Amino acid sequence: MSRAKISVIGAGHVGATTALRLAEMELGDVVMVDIVEDMPQGKALDLMEMAPVVGYDVSITGANGYDDTAGSDIVVITSGIPRKPGMSRDDLLATNAKIVKQVTEEVIKKSPDTILIVVSNPLDAMVYVAHRVSGFPRERVMGMAGVLDSARFRAFISMELGVSVDNIHAFVLGGHGDDMVPLAKYTTVAGVPITELMPPERVEALITRTRQGGAEIVKLLKTGSAYYSPAASAAQMCEAILKDQKKILPCCVLAQDEYGLDGVFVGLPVKLGSGGVEEVFEIELEDGVRDELHTSAGHVKELCDKVHELIEI
Ligand code: APR
């Protein structure tokens, strides 16, 4: 039996950290691709030289072209520019739409049966670009956002209550922007909803911090955006697929009549297994929350319309 192959496009902060996580988890062989000459090769070699110390047993290679990515089981797209302080994710649209289009075209030539996980921002619109360009079914095109946003929410709850992150389950749905929708009712500590564990104003404060979680990091880093947590989140999605775990994770997916949404990419709870997105779960939402989800999806739709003014897809 051959090992799985995961290609990571863009070997910058998120891409290289994703490669590291994938190697540490021994999920398969990793190929990193970047346009910067020699850089992905250098990072791949560095990671190979880390293997004897840490003990992972996979091959990691770097390239400036796509030949080595042929036959990938999963391709994680992280290529594109990150935010700088004061920028919204939407400000990246024009640059990253072109990059994601070009990358997707190259990727699918070599790996027509692969599963695409997009990380580049603005996330939901970039997944839309990858979907249009690849022509793949929704099962094989998804975006990483909800796992990260939920992880941020979990981290803040853990800090607030002084309990292990392990005990905290959280769900954040909607687009990966300021209007994302953290679901307080379905966010629990050892099974108890957080709404029963803290006053409403604290729940609201943590929701606001979660919505601005990316910007909080950008403000601190000053030169780019978060990468440890985004990389770990993308690797978790790869694991769920490669191990056919059937894990329920919030992912950006094409809604097809779920939650009253149709034809728009937005964060929803999905079951991830070897087939990619195997199912979209519909959970009951209170009216206000459902409205928030629709507002967020409307914003994504506007961005996707803008994409068509920028590139031909
Ligand atoms: N093909 C391949 N790689 C590309 C291309 C391209 N057409 N265009 C840019 N890249 C590479 C850059 O050379 C760079 O090495 O993408 C990499 C991006 O890395 P960083 O600048 O370090 O950005 P990073 O923090 O990794 O964020 C990447 O993920 O979370 C999102 O918002 C973030 O859109 C951003 C993306």
Short synopsis of the structure:
The protein is of the alpha/beta class. Helices cover 43% and strands 21% of the residues.
The CATH architecture of the largest domain comes to Alpha-Beta Complex
Low-confidence stretches: none
Total E-strand runs: 14
Q: How do the SSEs run, as a string of H and E?
A: EHEHEEHEHEHEEEEEHHHEEEH
Approximate strand percentage: 15-25%
Radius of gyration: 19 Å
CATH class of the largest domain: Alpha Beta
User: Level of helix content?
Assistant: 40-55%
Bound molecules: adenosine-5-diphosphoribose
Overall number of structural domains: 2
Gross morphology is globular
CATH superfamily heading of the largest domain = Lactate dehydrogenase/glycoside hydrolase, family 4, C-terminal
Derived structural class: alpha/beta
Major sheet description? 6 strands, parallel
For the biggest β-sheet, the strand order reads 3-2-1-4-5-6
**What is the first-to-last residue Cα distance?**
38 Å
List the helices and strands and how they pair.
Blueprint: E1 5-9, H1 13-24, E2 29-33, H2 39-54, E3 60-63, E4 74-77, H3 93-110, E5 115-118, H4 123-134, E6 141-143, H5 146-161, E7 168-169, E8 172-173, E9 181-182, E10 188-189, E11 192-193, H6 200-211, H7 213-221, H8 228-242, E12 247-258, E13 261-273, E14 276-280, H9 287-310
Parallel strand pairs: 1-2, 1-4, 2-3, 4-5, 5-6
Antiparallel strand pairs: 7-10, 8-9, 10-11, 12-13, 13-14
The structure holds adenosine-5-diphosphoribose (APR).
